[in-house]
Amino acid sequence: MATLNIKDLPDGLYKRLQARARRERRSVAKEVAQILSDALETPKPLSILELQGLGKEYWRGIDAAAHVQRERESWE
User: Which of 34, 41, 46, 67 has a Cα at 20 to 30 A from 6?
Assistant: First the structure.
């Protein structure tokens, strides 16, 4: 396995990292590896069911059918 050495890590950031590792019951090294793994992981695509309600705050008070009709008319 590779070794990663981080220099000049601010004390406050390290303390927060330690606290997070403690909450997750991991060593600081394992917590850093987990954070990096999560950050670099390719997100899985969402299904249409998982998108349900997404953006609903933008559609509040708007008639969706009328909006679609206006959009279609603008293409003609």
Answer: 41
Q: pLDDT grade, residue 61 (50/70/90)? A: confident
C-alpha to C-alpha distance for 76 and 74, rounded to whole angstroms: 6
Using DSSP's 3-state secondary structure scheme, residue 8 falls into coil
What SS3 class is residue 23? helix
CA–chain centroid gap for 40, Å, is 11
Taking alpha carbons only, the member of 9, 10, 6, 26 closest to residue 18 is: 26
What is the DSSP-derived secondary structure letter of residue 41? Answer: S
Q: Which two tokens stand for residue 10?
A: 């601010």
Tens of pLDDT, residues 38-52: 999 988 877 777 777
For residue 75 the two structure tokens come to: 């293409």
